[in-house]
Design brief:
4-stranded antiparallel sheet; alpha+beta; 2 domains; about 15% helix; F-box-assoc_dom_typ3; F-box_dom; F-box domain-containing protein; F-box-like_dom_sf; single chain; globular; 28 strands
């Protein structure tokens, strides 16, 4: 007997299945109608939501029944931000509902941590906002030729080595081009810079907790006759006098790796440049070998006081091969990161296939605690220089960036000891975005 349903007369008389989306229609609420439950409008605990919902819509199903507005509110609230932005094109009522401050505030409360902001390899005209699964939420127009600067703010910073730097507000679309002050000005650390010198510029964007001021730190590494000098200055965005200008801030006590910078709270940290340190003439390696003394290898810049200081790295007291571990930690195998508001030294101990994450618990006493020791065999190559933890999720997983021009993003699950790569394009640089997502639709086209 044939099982082909097209031969069944009764099957042919059945109506074709209807799409839930195509069958839905938007119906505005009119006072006195039964579209909004009286309990919702009368409830004092839901008065804020009711005041919004009463002025919006309900959805009629294909059976002629009506979806209560509070149910619609909660359904839309649970959707990914990208889908909500798409649904705003359905009708004016959905656009108005999802643009209400009450809805946006509720959506922010549900948002699990900051978003990832990434520059994809081969796309120099945009930066991309993604969730922790790698799903692109927004594509933000950027400045072509400028690379993404790592940050953790509601702003996006892009810059190049020549000294050009811009700050983008993804909400308004406003772009602030910072002045590219010529380095030959003599107040740059009192080191006159000539056209024959090679100058490399790096930038970091941070915010002062006590005042809310956003500041950009600029480090210029000057190479002259195979010797290096560092020049630093800082600029305050939206300064009180309305004039953006760079202010000299001295320099760190040692040459730092300008790629290692990270902002933690209202301070900027850089790891020393291991091509220059330790100095063999000072026998610093011998001191480490004999008594475990760790040199100050991290430069700290206070964004509020605008002063440089230094701190030491973790002190290793246990183990039979402390010397080997120190040599690896203080070399090119370490990077700096921020997790849970702490400075983190990420040591890619490749000879042992371990990624050790040291948390700075007390800045005053330089107390470091190794909270993670991650087995990385067959996941992180031994030659990988940039291994930077980005985010510690609520479920305990750690988002890690492996940068090798181009790089990739991985999620590490400590409970199952499993790495999983995010399904994204190749990544050149990453940071974190802490601003609102749904308020971006006025400035950015949804892709």
């Amino acid at each position: 007997m044939s099982s082909d349903k097209s031969d069944d007369p009764e099957w042919q008389r059945r109506p074709a299945p209807r799409s839930p989306i195509s069958s839905a229609r938007c119906t505005p609420y009119h006072p006195g109608s039964c579209l909004v439950p009286e309990s919702l409008a009368a409830s004092s605990s839901c008065s804020a939501k009711a005041s919004v919902m009463v002025n919006h819509l309900a959805v009629a199903s294909r059976h002629g029944r009506v979806m209560p507005p509070d149910v619609l509110f909660d359904i839309l609230l649970r959707l990914p931000a990208k889908d909500i932005c798409r649904f705003r094109a359905v009708c004016r009522h959905w656009l108005s509902l999802t643009s209400e401050p009450l809805f946006i505030d509720a959506r922010i409360a549900r948002q699990q941590g900051p978003l990832i902001v990434a520059s994809f390899h081969g796309d120099g005209k945009h930066v991309h906002l993604m969730d922790s699964s790698g799903r692109v939420v927004k594509r933000v127009p950027s400045m072509e030729g400028l690379a993404l600067v790592r940050s953790r703010l509601d702003l996006v910073c892009v810059a190049d080595m020549e000294g050009n730097c811009s700050v983008i507000d993804p909400v308004t679309g406003a772009v602030s081009h910072l002045p590219n002050t010529p380095p030959e000005l003599d107040w740059w650390g009192n080191i006159p810079v000539t056209k024959d010198d090679s100058v490399f510029n790096a930038f970091l964007l941070g915010r002062v907790d006590s005042t809310g001021d956003c500041k950009v730190l600029r480090l210029s590494r000057v190479e002259r006759e195979r010797t290096y000098h560092l020049i630093s200055c800082v600029l305050t965005l939206d300064d009180a006098d309305g004039v953006q200008r760079w202010r000299p801030t001295g320099r760190p006590e040692f040459i730092v790796n300008t790629h290692s910078g990270v902002v933690v709270g209202d301070a900027v940290y850089y790891f020393w440049w291991t091509a220059m340190y330790p100095d063999p003439e000072q026998d610093q390696w011998d001191l480490i070998r004999k008594n475990g003394d760790v040199p100050d290898c991290i430069a700290r810049f206070d964004l509020e006081a605008e002063k440089w200081t230094t701190i030491s790295g973790p002190c290793l007291l246990d183990g039979q091969d402390v010397w080997t571990e120190y040599f690896s930690m203080l070399s090119k195998s370490s990077t700096l990161a921020e997790l849970r508001g702490n400075l983190v030294l990420a040591h890619n101990f490749s000879s042992r296939s371990l990624l050790d994450l040291w948390f700075l618990i007390d800045t005053e006493s330089c107390l470091w605690v190794k909270e993670y020791s991650i087995w990385t065999e067959q996941v992180i190559p031994s030659f990988m220089r940039i291994v930077k933890p980005l985010l510690l999720l609520d479920d305990g997983r750690i988002l890690i960036f492996l940068g090798h021009r181009p790089g990739a993003l991985f999620l590490y699950d400590p409970s199952n000891v499993v790495f999983s790569r995010l399904d994204t394009a190749y990544v050149d640089e990453v940071g974190l975005y802490t601003g609102r997502v749904l308020s971006l639709q006025s400035a950015i086209k949804v892709q």
